[in-house]
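User: Please fill in residues for this 86-position structure.
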């Protein structure tokens, strides 16, 4: 398997981590990012979970909107049964 340089990124943690250097692999400059998604989890430079919470909140709101638009009978038992199947 070949190494994919296009998927590599640099993220700096801490106040003493120097940001003045350019990092290269195979003569390709690596992009510096402040947030990155890895294995389904958003990681930010300040290690706060705000971006992860925002993404999960958005997914939940979309699901609730779909339920509201498509459910004819909005009985609590039916909605609980539907969400367990997901």
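Assistant: Residues filled in for all 86 positions:
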């Amino acid at each position: 398997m070949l190494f994919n340089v296009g998927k590599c990124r640099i993220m700096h943690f801490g106040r003493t981590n120097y940001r003045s250097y350019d990092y290269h692999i195979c003569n390709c400059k690596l992009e510096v990012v402040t947030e990155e998604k890895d294995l389904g989890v958003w990681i930010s430079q300040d290690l706060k979970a705000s971006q992860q919470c925002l993404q999960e909140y958005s997914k939940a709101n979309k699901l609730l909107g779909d339920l509201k638009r498509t459910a004819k009978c909005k009985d609590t038992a039916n909605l609980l049964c539907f969400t367990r199947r997901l």
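For context: The chain has one domain: 5-85.
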